[in-house]
Amino acid sequence: MKTTAKKPSRFRILRHETLEPREMLAAIPALTYNSAANHTIYLNFADTAYTGTIWNYTNSDGSWRRSDRTVHSASFNFESGTNTITTDEEKAMRDIFALVVEYFSPFNVCVTTVAGRTQLGKSGGVEVAIGGRNSDWLGIDYFGISQPGSFSNAYEYYWVPIHVYEIPYQRHVNNNLVHVFSQSIVNSYDTYQARVAVIAETIVHEVGHSLGLEHHGVGNGAKGVVSSVNGEYYAGHQIVGASGTGTRQRAPFMGSASSSTALLQWAYPNYTGASTPQYSKPTNPTQNDLNIITTKNGFGYRADDYTVTTPMAQFGFGLTGVPTGLY
Question: Using an 8 Å Cβ cutoff, are 181 and 72 in contact?
Answer without folding.
Answer: no
